[in-house]
Structure formats: structure tokens, C-alpha cells
Amino acid sequence: MRDDRIDARREASRLAEPVEEAAALARKLGLDPYPVNYWIVDHDEMNELIAYGGFQRRYPHWRWGMAYDRQRKQDQFGMGKAFEIVNNDNPAHAFLQESNSLADQKAVITHVEAHADFFANNEWFGLFGDGQDRDDEHADPDAAAMLERHAETIAGYVEDPAIDRDEVERFIDAVLCLEDTIDQHRAFARADERRESDAPPDLRERLDDLDVSEDVRRHAFDEEWLDDLAESERTDARLEDPHTDVLAYLLEHGQRFDEESGKAEPFEPWQTDVLDILRTEAYYFAGQKMTKVLNEGWASFWESLMMSDEGFAADDEFVTYADHMARVLGAPGLNPYKLGKELWEFVENVTNRREVVDHLLRVEGITWRNFHDVIDFEAVESLLAPDPAVASITADSLADLDPDDPRIDAEALERARAGEVDVERYPWKVLTTAGLAERHFSLSKPQNRGFLGRIRRSELERLARYMFDDAKYDDVEAALDDVDYEAGWRRMRELRESHNDVTFIDAFLSEEFVAENDYFTYEYSRATDDFRVASDDPEDVKKKLLLQFTNFGKPTVAVYDGNFDNRNELLLGHRYNGIDLDVEQAKRVLERTYELWGRPVNLMTIVKRYDEHELEIARRRNREPTPTEVGKRIRYDGERFETHDLDPDLEERIAANDIDYDTKPDDWLN
Fold first, then answer.
1. Ranges for the SpoVR protein-like N-terminal domain (predicted)?
2. What are the residue boundaries of the structural domains of the chain, listed by start?
């Protein structure tokens, strides 16, 4: 153990300079991250941290052991190496594995600085804070302290001789089955702060307002009829506006089934406490789940720029780093690092292209109609190349730099001229963000050659339509002299504040992006009993991706009624968007939900049915059969399941006319 600590201290000493310089470079690039505390851990400690979701202490439960064993086996059999883990906290905490090469460590550190910037500036993390300060939804997180408090509280219940340990663990299991059934579109709030929609006014109140006589009321409005009407209107209101935070609803209205009395009884105090704790943690981790593509893409984008474009990886480390990045971006399946990085690069390129085109359309003789005919795109790309003064900075070129140039950091330049800055190793130190933006302008990079010329006439026309000033340039060179090289990065920073994966993909996964990056959909075919490519149509690709990320890729379920059929039964509804539920898995979840309701529970869903004859014809003709969609209600009473046909009115309420991602960040963040 002592040798291990010596190794950790030695590694920490080796990484002190990269940590300091990466943080400084991140800020020079315009990022504004939380401060980061870096910790050196060994192989086993890293696996433990990953199992615990990036924190050193969590509540006692078997799930952590399962996660640890899974991670250990992945590492052991080469199915995925863990380079780092970082958590959303202020300060953020990042854990580096001491056995990593220096190139890997540098890659991780630059990656982490970008994550810390995303944590600090993305509003979804502000919405889903730990809720310690209810008056400030954007208060800095103190997640490590929160999770440690939770761990101590639940450990106390587990160790309490008056409480059965197995009962605590079983209760946690039940809550965890529903941990993603929270309201992702609203800030964290205590359950009692989030009431159901106001019930419609009772007709009795309206009769009072109308000053109806007692004689008329007695003969025309019988009390039993008024009671039935009030309940009917309350039920209709609930069905129109279902409760999307299922955990909050159960916290307010849930009960436990008491076997001795044979009826539902209020939760024990420890059960209420545990449910509240797990719901709070579900909200804390929701931000990470909702921004996986955006966050990992952001971190990969800036890591690549720092390590490759800015030379943070030394010459003798570059091949190792290239292999590192290839493994990260080359992972099979839906890779959030690759998709996210490509989307951010596309946003940068599109923004920079609009900036350049906006200036070119102001040149005398250039219009949106003749743009592609008169522009020499190779000449434009050459003119957009960074000024040699910022493109190549050496000790010999320092004397030629102008300290009054907004691209130059005058104070750093003075120190560099005095020999206090190693500009051969860190040339970025004498540049400002403006200088770095010009130095790394995306449209001047070889991999983006031709992007400017691919702009469509429709976009040119749209840009020209909204040009309200009459500023004109005599020639292309004069126009390009006024290009704002920071436009792309500034736009990226704006977008990382308000978007999550769903809204970002919805906004920016365009036809051009799909074609540029060769995206397509594949799906299971009932005709061939195998998976096959289904479409490369951009709208199909977008829809498929949005389905993957809506509600963390899990079915969306809400509470429609807590007194279904006037029998105190819980009625849940699966918001159907064309994707079937796994019915057997849904039944297991209903079993767990029963433990939190204490009375029968129901789940409404829609299932697809295939006619065997139609299916056989489809197979012969190699086409997909057309299913019949049927509404069903699955009921569980604590002992057995029943399946009932769903009332057409209820079926209509849960059948989505469109996928429920069709909303924008401003709508969600109000």
C-alpha cells in the first residue's frame, strides 16, 4: 500500500505541469470551467469509482457490486479501458489512472477541462442540482457532500436492528426500477412543491355563484350526482394532464401493503426518506444522462484541438495520442463521442461559413444568384488562412509581434520576450482568444476544404434576404479582412448553455450533416428475421436518433390516475411513440411499483399485432408487414396479472401523434 501511495505521488508530480497548462489553455480558448481537483488512483480504485458513478461513497446496495464486477471484466478482457472519470461538482473532481501513459493522461486532462466547462455552463445541470438551496436553482452543486449524506442516512437504516436489512434493499430495488420516471423538463423541486394541476371547480361552487335556491338545488342537483360529476371532472383533468414525475407522485400518495392487516398502510418514515433521497439523486444524474452526446462531443472537440491542433501532445506522444483518440471515436454502435464531436464541428463550420458568406455577399457584383459562379473558392480559402504572425510563433518571431494587436496577449508577450515563457512548447500563451480563433479557424483546415462552396442556393437567398444594411466592399480581400474568426466558437458556447441531446439533434442534424457523415438507420426486419439498413433519409435518421435519446432512451411513463375506476388503483400510461414495450419487463416493473403503491397498479400501453398470413406474404415478398396497433391495460394486484382491452378514449390519450421530443430549449427552460 505504501509503494502504491509513492507511485501516486510520483504520478501527481509528473502531471502537475500538464494540469496547470491545460486549465490555462482552456481559458485562453474561451472556456470557463469549474476548477478541477485531480486525483491519482490505481486500477482497482478506478473500477470502484466507475461503479459508484464517479463518487467515492454511495449508499449500501448490491447494484454497486454488480457494476464493479462488470467494469472489472470489461477491462480484464479488453472490452473497454477506463482512462478517467469526472463528476459534476464545484470544484469538479477527476480521477486519473496511474498506469496511463503521459499521452493518455494529457488527453484525459484536456478532455476533463472541457467537461468542467460544460458542467459549469449548461443549464440542464443547473436545473437538476442537488436542491440544497431551493431559492437558487442555479446554485453551485455540492454533489459529493450530498451523496455522502445520503450514504450515511441509508447506511443507518440498513444497520438499524429495528429495520429488516432485506426490506431496505428490496425497497431500494423498487424505487430504482422507476428512477428515470421524473420530470426532465422542470427544475428539481420537493415532491410537495409539485402538485397535480388544479382540480376543476366543483359545480356546488358554481351554483353558489349563481345564487340557485335550495329548492331547485334539492330537486335538480342531487348530492350523489354532484359527487359523481366532481369525480368525473377531476378524472378527466388528470387524464388531460398526467403527472410526469412518477417518483414525486409516489412520494406523496404511495403506500405499502401490510400483510398482517391485508391492506395498504402509510410508508414507514425510513421508506419516505429513502424514496426522497433516491428521487433527489435521480434528478442530479438526469443532467448527465440528457446531455451524453453533447457533453462527450464537447469534451472530445476541445481535447482534439488542444492535443492535436495546439500541440499539447509532444512530438514523441502524438502517435500514442492518435491511437487513443482512434479507439475513443472508433467504438462500435451509437458512439456519443463521435456523434457529438461531428455535430459540434458541423455547427462550427456552418457558423463560420455564414460569417464568411455574409461578407462575400456585400462585395460589389456578388449576389446570391451568381455566388457559385463568380467566387474563386480556392482563393477565398487561401485568404482565410491565419496570419503567419499567429500561425507560427517562435522565439525568433516574438520581436515582430505587436503588443497592441488584439490577437496578442501583451503581458504574456512581455514575459515571453524576457524568457519566462516557453513559446516553443506553449505558443498559445502569447495569444488571446481572438488570436487562437484565427489560428484554428475551421474553414482554413484541410479537412474542411470545399465546405464553403457546398452552401446551397436556398441558404444564400435566405442570408441575402435579411441583409438590411448597405455596407459594401470593393473586393473579396477587403470583405474577408472583416471576418470575425471567433463567430464559430462564440456560437458553440451559446448553444452549449441551453441544449440537451434531444434539442441539439433536432436542431442541427440536417440533410447536409447526414450526407457529409454517411449516417443511416438500421432496424430489425420481421420479413428477414434479421437487422438490415432501413434508410439514409435525413428525417428517418433524425427520428431514429431522437427516439434513442428521448427520456434517456427509455419508455416515457406518467401517472394518469391515482383512483382509477374509483378503487384507489394506480393508472400509469406508456406514452406510445411507435415503439412497443417489452411486456415481460413491464410486468416486472409493475411488481416493483405495487410495492410503492400498496394497491393494484395498471399500465396502459399500445402493442403491435401481426397477422400470420400477412407476415408470411411479407416474408416471401421481402417487405415489412403492416401491424395492427391495439390498446391494452395490464393490471397487477399483488398476486397475478390481468390484461384488458383499453378503452378507446384512453388509447387516444396515450397514442402520440408525434414523438414527444418536438420542443425547443427555450420552451423547456422557461
1. 13-354
2. 336-517, 555-669
Backbone angle region of 245, left / alpha / beta, with phi > 0 → left and psi within -120 to 50 → alpha: beta
Distance CA 320, CA 101 (A): 8
Cβ(513)–Cβ(525) below 8 Å: no
**pLDDT, tens digit, for every residue of 7-24?**
778 888 889 999 999 999
User: At residue 496, what is the residue type?
Assistant: R
Q: Which of 123-132, 149-158, 218-227, 599-608 has the lowest mean pLDDT?
A: 218-227
Q: How far apart are alpha carbons 52 and 658 in whole angstroms?
A: 37
| Pairwise CA distance, residues 154 & 151, whole Å | 5
Alpha carbon distance, N-terminus to C-terminus of the chain: 52
Query: Radius of gyration over alpha carbons of the chain, in Å?
Result: 30
Which residue intervals of 160-245 are DSSP H helices?
Answer: 165-176, 203-209, 214-220, 223-240
pTM of the model: 0.85
199 residue type, one letter: A
* Cβ atoms < 10 Å from Cβ of 387: 12
The full 3-state SS of 491-536, as one line of letters, equals: HHHHHHHHCCHHHHHHHHCCHHHHHHHCCCEEEEECCCCEEEEEEC
**H or E stretch at 147:** helix 143-159
- What are the residues facing 569 on neighbouring strands? 564
**Own/partner long-range contacts of 642-646 (Cβ < 8 Å, ≥24 apart):** 646/604, 646/606
Sign of the Cα pseudo-torsion (22, 27, 33, 37, in order):
positive
How many residues appear in the chain? Answer: 670
Three cell numbers written together for 2: 505504501
Q: What number of helices (H) and strands (E) belong to the chain? A: 30, 12
DSSP label at residue 305: I
Q: Which residues contact 640 (CB under 8 A, 6 or more apart)?
A: none
Q: Do residues 36 and 116 make contact, with C-beta atoms less than 8 angstroms apart?
A: yes
What residues have CB less than 8 Å from 332, skipping those under 6 apart?
A: none
Grid cell locating 390: 499567429
Q: Is 530 helix (H, G, I), strand (E, B) or coil?
A: strand
Measured N-to-C along each axis, helices 487-498 and 336-360 cross at an angle, to the nearest 10 degrees, of 130
Other CB atoms within 10 A of residue 531 CB: 10
User: Which residue, among 668, 669, 659, 626, has the nearest Cα to 545 in the 3D structure?
Assistant: 659
Residue 543 to residue 96: CA distance in whole angstroms: 37
pLDDT tens for each residue of 583-632 = 999 999 999 999 999 999 999 999 888 777 777 777 777 777 777 888 99
